[in-house]
Amino acid sequence: MSEPAPAPFAVDLLIESAVDDVGDDLVALRRDLHAHPELSWRELRTTALVAARLRRAGWRVTELARSGLVADIGEGGPVVALRADLDALPVPDLTDDPWVSTVDGVTHACGHDVHTSALVGAAVALGRVHARGLLPGRVRLLFQPAEEVMPGGALSLIELGALDDVDQLFGLHCDPTLDVGQVGLREGPITGAADHLEVTLTGSGGHTSRPHLTEDLTYALGKVVTELPAILSRRLDPRSGVSVVWGIVRAGSAHNVIPATGRIGGTVRMLDAIAWGEAEKLVPLLVEQIVAPYGVHAQVDYQRGVPPVVNDLDSIVLLGRAVERVLGPDGHVPTQQSLGGEDFGWYLDRVRGAMGRLGTRTPGGPTYDLHQGNLRVDDRSVGIGAKVLASAAVAALASASVA
Questions:
Q1: Which helix (H) or strand (E) holds 189?
Q2: Which end of the chain is least crowded, N or C, by CB within 10 Å?
Q3: Residue burial 306-344, b: 16+ Cβ < 10 Å; e: rest
Q4: Nearest alpha-carbon partner for 109 in 360, 364, 383, 362
Q5: Which pTM does this prediction carry?
Q6: What is the CA 244 to chain-centroid distance, rounded?
Q7: CA atoms of 325 and 314, how far apart (whole Å)
């Protein structure tokens, strides 16, 4: 592995001062985005706000047909990309902050408002670096829609050529289990593969006093709920950490009626990309075998979601050094692989790169969970994320220029 060239000291100071200069504006942007969340593929207001700020900072902006944008700065040389996601979740905001969501049933429960604001901050800093003639190549920003829906908006950006000429890619994701001022790093897989699964059973319903004259659909549905996770754990490599968890179980409307239809829905997750490739064919076969003794018909809708995010070693080294320049040697901490899905994995299937976990917990404060309506973040994480992303981009360009 070649030794990455450190970013010049002058550039480090320029990045720090640029982000500090707009720090209050970045926090205000984060709170504005939180108050006006937009669901996947509907991030129109968010896209417009980001585009205006990027153009003021000297970026060449291309807004996408539906929502989201790609922006470039610099000329020639290697290309390093930075990514943020824009969409919110269909989850009610349970906080009482002044910037509480104004959209009923929708909130930024995954921290994408932080991701977006931090990348805007990085854009401002990199714009100043470029204006001083200190950017050794090009940087591309991917403000991506629809991360929260499978298979994810990353694929649409890839199809539009957003990764063309890109040599390396970096991103950060909020982690409310880490204190602000910490960034979790891990070489290799950092998230899991994730798919959506829906099973619909149909049969001849009837009276609960005569199950032998019907097809006891509810009983069969229960068998799928309990047996599919157990069987998969024996049919796939146990080291893959396969997990089937149901979020929807619906059948029937009366105590003494065997229904004619029922539905379950959930996710299939695993740590390993090889097992991920096998699961799509195996699950429908197993469901058919489970329900066969009960005479019901099974319709399986298996929606392939996202692959694991696998961090490249060289990229993690660069990201770690960027964290050290911003936060000092204790700024990065080890982190474990999660079964959570992230469509950043689609990008890293094509180019090398890394994703880190950005601490958002106020030291000594409560620990929240992602995808919950009570999520709160420490606003200092926005500026930290901006500095780390900008520093990583400059360091990666410098490293590529001397390689």
A1: strand 188-189
A2: N
A3: bbbbbbbebbbbbbbbbbbbbbeeebbeebebbbbbbbb
A4: 360
A5: 0.92
A6: 20
A7: 17
Summarised one tens digit per residue, pLDDT across range 130-166 is 999 999 999 999 999 999 999 999 999 999 999 999 9
**Residues 6+ away with beta carbon under 8 Å from 258:** 205, 206, 207, 208, 211, 214, 216, 217, 218, 252
Domains, in order of start, for the chain: 9-190+308-402 (3.40.630.10), 193-306 (3.30.70.360)
Please check whether residue 86 is in contact with residue 167, taking contact to mean a CB–CB distance below 8 angstroms: no
Cα 165–chain centre separation: 23
Burial-class residue 56 by CB neighbours within 10 Å (0-12, 13-18, 19+): exposed
Average pLDDT of the residues in 183-202: 97
CA pair distance 62, 43, nearest whole angstrom: 15
At which residue do the structure tokens 């689609």 appear?
Answer: 346
Q: Can you give the length of the chain in residues?
A: 403
Euclidean distance between CA atoms 361 and 381, whole angstroms: 9
| The amino acid at 396 | A
- Could you tell me the end-to-end alpha-carbon distance of the chain, in angstroms, rounded to an integer? 10
> Cα(227)–Cα(243) distance, rounded to whole angstroms?
12
What's the mean pLDDT in 10-36? 97
**Residue range 108-134, pLDDT digits in tens:** 999 999 999 999 999 999 999 999 999
Question: Beta-carbon neighbour count of residue 224 at 10 Å?
Answer: 23
